[in-house]
Amino acid sequence: MEHGNKVRVSVRNVTKVFKDKNRERPVLDNISFDIYDNEFLVLLGPGRCGKSVLLNIISGLMPATSGSITFDGKDVEAPDPEFGMVFQRTGLLPWLTVMDNVRFGPSMRNVDKSEQYSKAQYYIDMVGLTGFEKHYPYQLSGGMKQRVGIARAYANSPKVLIMDEPFGALDAQTRYNMENEVLSFAEKEKRSILFVTNNIEEALLLGDRIILLTACPASIKAIYDIPFKKPRDTMDQDFLELRKVISENTDLAL
Amino acid sequence: MSRVENHVESGKDPASKNSSIYAFVFRIAPFVSLFLLVFIWFAAAGDNNRIFPNPLIVLRKMIDMLFNPVAKATLLQHAGMSMLRVICGLGFAILIGIPLGVMIGWNGSVRATIGALFECIRPIPVLAWIPLIIMWFGIGEKAKVIMIFIGALTPIVVNSYTGIKFVPALYLDVGKMFNASTEKQLLMKIVLPAALPSIFAGIRNATSVAWMVVLASEMLAAKSGLGFLVYRGMEVFDISLVMAGMVSIGLAGAFLSFLTSFIERKVCPWNTGIKSE
């Protein structure tokens, strides 16, 4: 457990209300939590409960109705390169090759060309896509696309990695493989990771802590410390026990 | 680290015997229909070849025109003249139409001003402009290029504009998340490439409009070009010349659209929806 560590991101009293024509739709209700240095924090909540909205607010893509986000003590108001994002629908740019997608972040910051390539190559190798550098996204399978998305996020050297249900669209087997790989990436490249999912087993496999959200409007229902050593066994008695506890505490999605 | 297989590239179905027969039928079907067309043409033409020349006569006429000039130019030179006019008019339309469409799509105040004006003028088809253009610019090369320009401009502007407007918000978020911080970076690195397939669709439409307009303008007044050839054939009642001109127009038009899809494939290799027409 890495809790003794310092706080990297603090989310304070974040509320978001969407205004349709004449009615207000609250999505997030007074959410506060911290992300510690190098911890793997999982946000677990039922489908369509505003998890993506919360991520967009934390990463600076969307303003909160009220509340604040600070990163290392500074307010986050615009998209901050200290955050790396792995998007739910991969968000690979279809006109760029795997290599160009992965080095996109550094290239926008005008990092030295050879450094862009060596860094991108390092992360392409890490996610196991060596040899696919010149492929376009349409030539890749779903799992491979999300590997590129992960490599792209790491290559931007973020201090905090945000993963928005990255494996939601994958088949069960691929998803299971990717979960294990994400663990090994996290082991290799120390980062704070904020991982969003609606899958309890995935949350329990990956998280150092799990923040359980309620159904819409989302607020924090419970926070669990997960004491098990990684990699974890899904058939372990304690694992199943905790899974049952969280499962019973989870709201049903509509 | 596990190395992943590329399912898309290695995913081939073992071809069964049945499907290979189908493949063969589909391969030869176009030639069969072409043969049928030529056969029916022969049959329909019959003996009255002055009024309805058969394919052989038309082909002979075309070969003859390759070497013996009609109105001081061989067939290829006439085709070249028509192409040159299209390339000039289309070139100007691309140079002006893409930036115009992009600005209308990207910038709200340009959309409200120039975009609105464009919407007012757009419904007037290019053929309706012809009298005005002739009165202002005469019937020379300048007038022809202007007609082609007007005809080609609309599809290019409209497609560039819609391409920009329908860039998925996700790509913009990706751009912002990965340090594309200025408007210019977002436009050049995200919005333009994302809109490129749509812009190219506009160019493809514009090419076929331009080809139509150049022929119309050459039939009105010209001393060269494929449209002129057809019109000359009508004037001297040489139906084999008219038909040879029509076939050449078809071939040259097909070449033009092949050329645009070729360029498109080079410029947007990721766009798998490109048809070779």
Pick out its properties.
heterodimer; A: alpha/beta; 33% helix; 26% strand; globular; B: 277 residues; 2 domains; 11 helices; flat; disordered N terminus
Question: What's the quick description here?
Answer:
The complex is a heterodimer of chains A (254) and B (277). Chain A is of the alpha/beta class.
How would you summarize the topology of this molecule?
The complex is a heterodimer of chains A (254) and B (277).
Chain A: E1 7-19, E2 24-36, E3 40-44, H1 51-58, E4 66-71, E5 74-75, E6 83-86, H2 98-102, H3 104-108, H4 113-126, H5 142-155, E7 160-164, H6 172-188, E8 192-197, H7 200-206, E9 209-213, E10 220-225, H8 237-249
Parallel strand pairs in A: 3-8, 3-9, 6-7, 7-8
Antiparallel strand pairs in A: 1-2, 1-4, 4-5, 9-10
Helix pairs in contact in A: 4-5
Chain B: H1 7-10, H2 17-45, H3 55-67, H4 75-106, H5 108-121, H6 126-137, H7 141-165, H8 169-177, H9 183-220, H10 226-235, H11 239-267
Helix pairs in contact in B: 3-11, 4-5, 4-7, 4-9, 4-10, 6-7, 7-9, 8-9, 9-10, 9-11, 10-11
